[in-house]
Automatic annotation (TrEMBL), chains A, B:
Listed InterPro entries: Bact_HTH_transcr_reg, Chorismate_lyase_/UTRA_dom_sf, His_ut_repres, Tscrpt_reg_HTH_GntR, UTRA, WH-like_DNA-bd_sf, WH_DNA-bd_sf
GO molecular function: DNA binding; DNA-binding transcription factor activity
Protein name according to UniProt: Histidine utilization repressor
The entry's keywords: DNA-binding, Transcription, Transcription regulation
Residues of the HTH gntR-type domain: 3-71
UniProt keyword Transcription, yes or no: yes
Record-linked CDD domains: WHTH_GntR
Keyword check for rRNA-binding: no
Domain of life: Bacteria
Source organism (scientific name): Sphingobium scionense
Listed PANTHER family: MANNOSYL-D-GLYCERATE TRANSPORT/METABOLISM SYSTEM REPRESSOR MNGR-RELATED (PTHR44846), TRANSCRIPTIONAL REGULATOR PHNF-RELATED (PTHR44846:SF16)
Length: 239, 239
DNA sequence: ACCGATATAATGTCTATACATTAAATATCG
DNA sequence: CGATATTTAATGTATAGACATTATATCGGT
């Protein structure tokens, strides 16, 4: 036995639950029974059961006992990494070309821009992402200078503002909206497709501790970019 | 103080890390220092630090100490709930109409169908989802009868096979692929749009303990359905 | 300066115990 | 019978200590 005992107990129940041998609502042994079965102290089984609880697999009620939790809504881990990194993993070369850059105030009537600006100026950066010099996505980005004053001195002629922001101002809250859109005339020209052709659109707002950081809208060439999300048994937060 | 001490310590560091007061790589106090600072035992601070570790916020190395983890790639929790539930939350009425149903073997040459069938038959179910009787998405689904023998007796004339599967055969692994496509002629007719119009396409494979369960391709009317994913400070796996 | 053996500092695991908390079960009283 | 008080079984939290593990640091010898 190389793995610690509490981890063994935890993994054992996880396997049984995921295999369906234990159905939602089933009661599992009390801590007393488990410490006898494994010949260990209560703290050890408690650690195992607590881990299962925080992983959402079991529900524990005082006096009643521990039960297999009924599956809450399946949620899944979707990685939305930096485009440059993601392309690099595929062996493609990422490049970014800036097409527009200006500092301005929020446009009157656009509440979202006003909220993002938060009383200060916005930096507007438009550009295009390429993979191996072929157009991949057009990007429209607004950055709150209030949250990121250093941004106005950034050099984005070749490096992507997304990469810069990730490295300098990691966000703590985000909202992504994924939809299908027809390419506008301008987007189509940049991507080399016909207007109205279907494109994947990702809009993202990010915040840091409640303060808005950036809004970005990326329109991807269909067929060139899919979003893939995988989900599997949670990797145990091991030692 | 209502909350337990280990939870207070954990929340304290979480707040400081998320607020940026502690930068990645920063070292935080040793367990010894923390137990003096809070006047508690080592197990208590250990519990707090272990929780931070399993949440991915800190990294712990023996002899060296505990450090703020450098943000691994931001991953986010994307809820892909049952359509019926999601529409219900919006106050819309969900309905499903079956347009095709057959049991067949995998089509020769389609490796993915063969892998899904896993030596047995496939149940093919095509249908259309509506919100308040307006078309929302067309769905093409293949179900492995080997994994879900009971499915062949299911009545899907009005209830969605996705809902049925979620209730009867929760998956343990899944892969989602989100892309933008142009509606085919048949899809366009069902959705009431012109062929080629941009649609959001979600393809999903699910498994249960390594055995394939189902493949589904859903093509959504653009503008009617966005996928929204939010991410925020992880809700503490509370008591 | 280099390499190897040893010491050391930190986390990792576990025990045995104690008391608190809570919700279910049970008893009690009107 | 029904409402209320009490018991009790289970988890929740915490302590103080012990030993294991391991990466780092230090010391010696060549």
């Amino acid at each position: 036995m190389k793995q610690p005992l509490h981890e063994k107990i935890r993994a054992d129940f996880e396997a049984r639950i995921l295999a369906g041998m234990l159905a939602p609502g089933d009661r599992l042994p009390t801590e007393q029974e488990l410490m006898q079965e494994h010949g260990c102290s209560r703290m050890t089984v408690n650690k195992a059961l607590s881990a299962l609880q925080s992983a959402g697999l079991v529900e524990r009620r005082k006096k009643a006992g521990s039960f297999v939790a009924r599956p809450r809504f399946h949620s899944m881990v979707l990685d939305i990494p930096d485009l440059a990194v993601q392309l690099g993993e595929r062996g493609q070369r990422h490049s970014y070309r800036l097409t527009r850059r200006q500092v301005r105030g929020p446009i009157a009537g656009r509440d979202k821009e006003a909220a993002l600006a938060n009383g200060a100026q916005l930096l507007e950066l438009d550009g295009i992402h390429c993979a191996d010099d072929r157009p991949l996505a057009v990007e429209h980005r607004l950055i709150a200078t209030r949250a990121v004053p250093a941004i106005v001195d950034g050099d984005f002629d070749s490096i992507s503002p997304g990469t810069w922001l990730l490295q300098h101002v990691p966000w703590t809250e985000a909202e992504n909206r994924i939809s299908a859109v027809g390419a506008t005339r301008g987007e189509a020209a940049l991507l080399g497709i016909v207007p109205g052709a279907p494109c994947l659109c990702v809009e993202r707002h990010t915040w840091r501790g409640g303060d808005p950081i950036t809004y970005v809208r990326q329109v991807f060439l269909a067929d060139a970019y899919d979003m893939v999300a995988r989900f599997g048994p949670s990797g145990s937060g091991g030692n």
